[in-house]
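Q: My labmate handed me this sequence with no annotations at all. I'd like to see what the chain might look like in three dimensions before we decide whether it's worth expressing. Could you predict it?
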Amino acid sequence: MSGELEEAVSEFVEQLGLHAEAEGLPRTAGRIMGLLLVCEGPYTLDQLQDELQISRGSASTNTRRLEELGVVERTTRPGDRRVYFRLTDDPYGRIVESRLERMRKIQEVVDRAIERIPDEYEKGKRRLDYMRQFYQLIVEETDALIREWRERDVQLE
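A: Here is what I predict for the chain of 157 residues:
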């Protein structure tokens, strides 16, 4: 695609941007992901800049953020010195895995608090234990769901 995005694609890209923003990511990162989901790629930074009407710095910063999350990867083409960006094979699983990692860190904080907070804070320690159990269940079940998802071996190509 070049120039203006078709209306339905444009709407999807914008909606994914808003969703990403609600999840704590920059809106532009969600917009880039939306474009890469719907349109044939891969895209250079200049192409992302043109399609999404964003600055080159924003394109660079947000593709780097998506790379860190494991959602986007760099690629090249023979004889072309430019870097291109495309979605990884399992961007959804990788997003969920990054959220799981944050939940595991919360579990560590709670476990350490339970160990260190004096027993006289009995009610607070019970609430912390409840929180620990909640996160433990969520992490275990989500890990199982990701494994099941990946066993399906869904092929897009």
